[in-house]
Amino acid sequence: MDSAVLLDLLGNENRRRILRLLSHKPCYVTEISEYLGVSPKAVIDHLRRLEDAGLIESRTDDQRRKYFHIARNLRLEVSVSPYRFGAKSAYPASRSLDMRGRCQHISLNLPGAADRDDGPAGTDGDAADHEVGFDPEDRAGTDGEPAGVTRPEGSSGSDDAVEDPDDGVADLAREYAYLEDVESELSLAQRWVHGRVTDVLDSLSDRLGSEADSRFHAEVLAAIARGNRDVRAIAGDINADPDRVETALERLADRDLIERDGRRWTIR
């Protein structure tokens, strides 16, 4: 989709709120109207514009109620600076994209990827052997650079002015070329991560049922994976109401995804 069209659609607050609501679960017009506090007629107009753009789709249930849900997995990137204004929208990379060799300046590593058969695959269908993100134990190198990012050869790594003007321009040119390459790779990596997040949430939705908020349940599971074991610790980690967290934990336990030992929860 053209980024200008997408920006125009998202310029309306109610359409943004509709998409936010539909990102949690499919809804019908009356639900959306009550959530927004606007008339059903206004909601239908917003839904029509979103549907015409291909952002949402609808289905009819047995009671002939029309449910709307998000149809596209789309990423919009906007850049504003004294030297650049631009926006681009693109679909995230597919799960079959092999990221190996695509990034020369950043390292991509997905812990446990080798144990999955639905990760970014090569031609043989095996999961790609890389991580997404930087090692939390090495956020920055000794020169203050983010881990996983390597400066170009000949770049000083310092923001101080260089004495020789000619050498300074050469360094700046190399730095700019390097940063352009990193920016392009980060954009690709973000699209890949966006696609993987959607895959994970789709899988979780299949296990929990379509009525569950898979994103919230995924955040609860991630908090447990990070070492939070009781309700209050999990709620604090994801900044959520403890009662809502407890309800989610019970649902996850009912699906045999987690288990409790006293007050401590662990993933099965």
UniProtKB/TrEMBL annotation:
InterPro entries: ArsR-like_HTH, HTH_ArsR_DNA-bd_dom, HTH_Cmi2_C, HTH_MetalResp_TranReg, WH-like_DNA-bd_sf, WH_DNA-bd_sf. PROSITE patterns: HTH_ARSR_2. The keyword Magnesium does not apply. GO terms for molecular function: DNA binding; DNA-binding transcription factor activity. The keyword Methyltransferase does not apply. Gene3D superfamilies: Winged helix-like DNA-binding domain superfamily/Winged helix DNA-binding domain. Residues 127-142 have a biased composition (Basic and acidic residues). Residues 1-89 form the HTH arsR-type domain. Residues 109-166 are annotated as: Disordered. Keywords: DNA-binding, Transcription, Transcription regulation. This is ArsR family transcriptional regulator. It comes from Halobellus ruber.
